[in-house]
Every structure is written in structure tokens, then in C-alpha cells.
Amino acid sequence: MTASTREPLSHPEAPPRPAAKLTLPTLTAMVVGSMVGAGVFSLPSRFAQETGVAGALIAWAVAGTGMLMLAFVFQALAVRRPDLDAGVYAYAKAGFGEYLGFFSAFGYWASACVGNVTYWVLIMSTVGAVAPVLGDGDTVTAVVVSSVGLWGFFLLIRRGVKEAAAINRIVTVAKIVPILFFVVLALFYFEPSVFANNFSGTDEAGTLFDQVRGTMLATVFVFLGVEGASVYSRHAKRREDVGRATVLGFLSVFAVFASVTIVSYGLLPMAEIAELRQPSMAEVLESAVGTWGKVFISVGLIVSVLGAYLAWTLMAAEVLFVAARDKDMPRFLGQSTAADVPENALLLTTCLSQIVLVVTLFSDDAFTFALDLTSALSLIPFLLAAAFALKVAARPERWGAEGRSTRRELVIAVVATLYTAFLLYAAGPKFVLVSFILYAPATFLFVKSRREQGRRLFSPGEAVICAVSVIGAATGIAALSAGWIEL
Questions:
Q1: What is the biggest distance separating any 2 CA atoms in the chain, rounded to whole angstroms?
Q2: What is the end-to-end Cα distance of the chain in Å, rounded?
Q3: Which of 375, 399, 425, 448 is the most buried (most CB within 10 A)?
């Protein structure tokens, strides 16, 4: 179906059209496709800038445990509360009210939009190695080319969810191959003496705790997407497949990410890895096998990033769409086409990505800043989802959960909540304040939704939350203006 023959939008108050039904392999591919994107190709340099082998091993142990608990949280909630669609947003709303649910939806959506920009920046930086006009992905030419790709994907996804999901499954398989190839080749050229010299890191890296803390936002970014099947739960053929896809996808990707990071320390000194141009994985392999290795990884990166962009754009639009259907976003975002595409939500998603793409022209390090901001924006939605799981595990009957709670479920929820709280601490005030700059203005969408329904704008508790977000945004703007924090 082309744009010229697209059927009229459904009325937002009409009964929802039957959702496209996705199988376990497709849902798992959504999770893997969402997680394997730009982040994995930047891991060698990102980790080497912060820590050595010892810190990296601890960081992956912490991140792996924490994110596995989050995966289990999404698995449990998919079964316990099958009535809740678009997981991250819906769980926050069910546990903490409409306004925090709205913030969760917006934060998750904004995180996806900013994350999508990192994909285009990294693609342009990769091609920029042979086309200097693209620079590090932040030149005017790079932004123009990225914009063409961004709107091209908008037209592709608008054709239909089933079509886009099928393409994502194919791309997921294609992009895993070069990453596994990198790990195998790195092991073949692995030098134990270089690995040993990189073990403890450098004196400038600080204490082991500081080194681990410095890697946390990088690990969050690469693990974003673990909730992919949960976000798209309304499309699952069988509800239990949502949880299975989440855990299967996470375990597969975790093994790959940790391997990519650790084997890199056996090829080059830590200080050299830290200074590599992104994508650093391609540069590391080039040092071992020559130019062909860099070219091979670069091609794999472009395929990987485009696949991740597709998956994330689908999920971002889905969150806005479901929130609008639940009357927590303005009703125009709840409109869908006959092909089951939330077109207005998709359009708004593409527009925000376009705006952030232009902003990269004014950043000193567009890729790193966008990557860290993506991670920071996702932390509040993750924390609220984990905290809701804790409420459900503690008192399942109070929160409408099916079945009885177990001690295992309670422990998982506690660990997931503590982990996400630690991530907020690790992010530091810079990214929390910048996040508030995005969160506070979003309240206008919440107000518009309430006015459409003729409801009171804020309850007393919601007014307090709004005031905190506005104060945080004002503080962030002041900090940027005074130069206390920089983009």
C-alpha cells in the first residue's frame, strides 16, 4: 500500500482495529534488534575511556545482573498483568498514577527519539572515514543525508507494522554475523601480554568503584530494548511469548556485548583503544587484520544500526499510540491507519528525531552526548516499572495481579529497583537536569489531554510532581547558561 492509496485514519473513539499478531521468534527478534544497534560498535572505546579489564568484568557483572532482573520483571508483569499493553508506560501508570505514567511514556519515547539520532550520527561517522565531508557525523552534509534516511524510514513504516517487523527479523540475523565474526577474529589475534597490561586500568581512571560507575550509562544504552517485546505486547500471538522473548533476547545479547568488550583489551593498549574513532570496534579489528576488517565491520554496523532504528521507531510510536488510547496523551496520537500504523505518533517521533539531529550540529561530541542522554531519559521509566513490580510482588491482590507471589519474584523486584536507582546516581546531575528540560515542557501534552476530557488538570500530588519537574528544568537551563554543564 503506497502513500497515495493509504486509507483514511480511523476515528480515535472507534474500536481498535485487530492488531497484527507476532510470534515468539519475531518478538525475540524485536528484542535483539532493539538492543543490537549503535552501542555495541562503540563499546571498546567507551569502556577503555573509563576502565581496564577488572573494572569491565565487574561492570558487566553488575549490569548483566541488574538488566537480567529487569528482564525477569517484564516477564513476570507480562503474565501477572496481561491487561497492560506497552509495558514500560502502562506499568508506571498502574502503579503510580496517570501523571507519572505520562512522564514514563514521554521519557521512554524521548529516549527512543534521541537514541535514533545516535544511529544516524554513527552511520555518518562510519562513512565519514572515506567521505570527509561527513566528518564525525555532525556536519551539515551529514545532517542532510541523515534527514533523508530518517524520512525514508517514516515512509517505510507507514506501509504497515507486519511489513516492518518482518524486515526487522531479517536484518537482526544479518547484523549479528559481523559482531560474532569480530569476537572470533579477536580471539585468534589475542595477545595475553597486552590483556594483562590492561587488567587494572590506568592511574587516571580513579578507584575501581569510579571506573565501574563510569561505564554504567554505556551499559544502559546497549541494553535498551530489553523491554522491546513488552512494549509491543498488544501484537503478541500468545501473551506468554512476551516474557519468553524478553529473557531469550537478553541472554543472547548479553553474551555478545560482554565478549566484544573483553576481547578488545587483548588487541591494543587501553590508552590507544580509548582514543579510537567511532565505531571503535572497526578500528580495533583493523589493528589486527588490516583495512578489510574495518570495512567488514563498518558494513555490518550500517545494517545493524538501520535495523535497530526500525525497531526503535516502531516501539516509540507504539508507546505514544497506547498512551493516547488510554487518554493519557492527546487524542490525535491515538489515530491509526487501516494498516495498523499509528501514523500521527510515528510522525511526531520522526519530527523529534529530526530536531535532535539538527541540535547535534552544536554539540562538541554529538554521539557520546546523545548516547548518554538516551540512557538517562530511560532511567525514570525503568525505575517506575521495577518499583511497580515490587508492589505487585509484595501485594499481588492489591494490584490486580493474577496468581500468588513468590519469594523469588520479590527478590527479583527488589534487585531491579535498587539497580535502576543506582543507575540514576551513576548518571549524575548533568543528565538528570537535561532530562528535566525535556520532561517539563511535555506537561503541555498532558494538559491538552485532560482538557479534551473536561477533567481537572492536576490533583494535589500531580501539582507537586509538576512543580518538581519545572524547578528541575529551570535549574538545568541555568546550569547550561552558566556553563556548569555542557552539551
A1: 70
A2: 42
A3: 375
Q: Which three cell numbers stand for residue 75?
A: 516477564
Angle at 45 between CA 44 and CA 51, to 5 degrees: 85
Q: Tens digit of pLDDT for each residue in 127-166?
A: 887 888 888 777 889 889 999 988 988 887 887 655 555 5
CA torsion 429-390-251-39 (nearest 10°) is -20
Residue bearing cell 534527514: 147
Secondary structure string (H, E, C) spanning 405-419 = CCHHHHHHHHHHHHH
Q: Which amino acid is at 41?
A: F
DSSP lists the bridge partners of residue 236 as 22
Q: What is the pLDDT of residues 207-219, one digit of tens each?
A: 777 788 778 777 7
Total-model pTM: 0.75
Q: Which of 284, 487, 468 is nearest to 380 (CA)?
A: 468
Rounded to 10 deg, the angle between the 53-80 and 87-96 helix axes is 70
Q: Are 163 and 271 in contact (CB under 8 A)?
A: no
Residue where the block lists cell 538492543:
35
User: What's the grid cell of residue 159?
Assistant: 506501509
CA 385 to chain centre: 15
> CB of 419 within 8 A of CB of 69?
yes
Instruction: Describe the chain by its helix, strand, coil percentages, rounded to 5.
Output: 75, 0, 25
In the three-class reduction of DSSP (H, G, I as helix; E, B as strand; rest coil), residue 484 is classed as coil
Distance CA 411, CA 206 (A): 32
